[in-house]
Amino acid sequence: MDKNTATEKNTTIIKNATCTFCGCVCDDMELTVDLDEKCIIKSKNACVLGKAWFSEHSVDESRPVALIDGKEASLEDAIEEAAQILVNARFPIIYGLSDTTSEAQRQAVAMADYLSANIDSTSSVCHGPTGMGLQGVGEPTTTLGEVKNRADMVVYWGCNPTDCHPRLSTHFTVMPKGMYIPNGRKDRTVINVDIRSTSTTNIADLFVQLKPGSDYELLSALRSISRGRRLNPSIEEQTGVPMATIEDVAHRLMSCNYGILFFGMGLTMTRGRHYNTGALHLLAADLNEHTHFVVKPARGHGNVTGADTVMSWQTGYPFGVNFNRGYPRHEPGEFTTTDILVRGEADAACIIASDPIANFARPAIEHLKKIPVISFDPKPTPTSQIARVALTTACYGINVPGTVYRMDDIPIPLRPAFESPFPSDLDILKPLTERIRELKAH
Amino acid sequence: MTETMILVPMRTTKQGTTLNAGKLKDAYKETTSTAEIKQEDMDRLGLKKGDRVRLRVGTHAVVVSCIPRKIKVTDNSSGLIFMPYGPTTSALMVDGDTAGTGMPASKHLVVEIEGPLAPEEDDG
Ligand code: SF4
Fold first, then answer.
1. A313 lies in the same domain as A396
2. Residue A168: CB partners within 8 Å, gap ≥ 6?
3. What pLDDT digit, counting tens, does each position of A269-325 carry?
4. What value of ipTM does the predicted structure carry?
5. Which residues of B touch A49 (CB under 8 A)?
6. How many whole angstroms separate alpha carbon A292 and alpha carbon A190?
7. A351 within 8 A of A387, measured Cβ to Cβ
8. Which fold has domain B2-114?
9. What's the whole-model pTM score?
10. In a domain, A314, yes or no
11. A354 CA to middle of ligand 1, Å?
12. Which residues contact A434 (CB under 8 A, 6 or more apart)?
């Protein structure tokens, strides 16, 4: 930390800080922090989303650390109330976890274990089908560093990183020069496959527009060509993509030196889901008969990859894990949060750094509103508004140190900018778990 | 005029920046309640920029404003409505079925679009 004496304000510069807004987890931020106002006044190297992330996470000291039934409460009382709710529930669920540190995620898994609870991350309504797809067929994987240095073919399928991960292309995958990509952008081909033109289409060499819901068919067609088979002409009608375009794409993929398929919710949130993602992984596997090809999901939240990673090494499964029987079980559709809520099974919910009231399907929201909810969030959200116990937390990466996993599974340490008067998720989860253990022991 | 179209919730830069400012603030609510529709579809439905439309799935409906889609590379997205993912699009995810995956088919919502609405017509 260098003290900045050049300005009148009491500021500090934090170099190599990490942005945790999206899965790119850029770790080259240079933050100018106003220590008196407890806010970040400049975030060099951040994209438009990162700038908003840093500038909008100042600390509002007037907010209470906790609310119980909408009334101000002490942290101790809130932890006691939360522990009582969770211990007295028959089917407690823990959900969220993609916007917190891996240290807090690990603690949440321990808490789920002591509670015999269900634990799930936002992965289940994000890249959960990706986890299911790759478990079935394997994952030809890579790191963003390798992509930067080697990839001469970048495919964005059903994702729009220019809007959602603005520095993915500019910092890692398309624009930078790499060890074997001396001319940067000029040495790479970018193909965008989507049902619509987006701002990512603007940076692509080739845009392939397909009919909504026909990703599986198009992926299968590309696999067929890569295996030397001939296509039935009906594929044009099924996908809306001309045969000549499908053949052109297939030959470009087969003839590159190193290709990467990035993909997003266009595959996981539509008909086919894990079949789509499985087909995409199999396409990469098939292309490895011709060249080197890898796959990466463009992950959204800053540490959603960490949620999958931590849950995998703690329980053996990446999301949708249930401890009801005293040991972890995983079953998408059964132990995933939307399904549990839609079936009306959960009778208490601990929501950590997530906002299901804003994002879940209507029947799931309706059930969540009927049961006691404990929410952890740095800001008020629709979920914190309905929570029985609403805890105000410090923001990971800005106020809280720890570890997050980038979308390519690389752990990145956090360098917080300034201290918050509010506790971190981990600061709450530790005593909460302890209290749950005590109550369970009686 | 009423027609059946497919609503595709999406992420946008504006949704991301307003989300950081706060989900309870007007800017976030406004951007997550603005539908982007191809100009030719707007013309066919008799819609102008800023008109209010009702989107209905079964018995559930929301009222949002609409604007024409602005894109640099032309596409054929006729029949599709795009709207930033948020409480309004979630209100139209009336089917919680995940087909055994945990994930509702949230990017492919078949909706009935009705508009333009008169200013006095209520939400819902
Ligand atoms: S790309 Fe993502 S991680 Fe990088 S600065 Fe932008 S929002 Fe932050």
1. yes
2. A24, A161, A262, A298
3. 888 888 899 999 999 999 999 999 999 999 889 999 999 999 999 999 999 999 999
4. 0.92
5. 13, 16-17, 20
6. 16
7. yes
8. Barwin-like endoglucanases (2.40.40)
9. 0.94
10. yes
11. 19
12. none
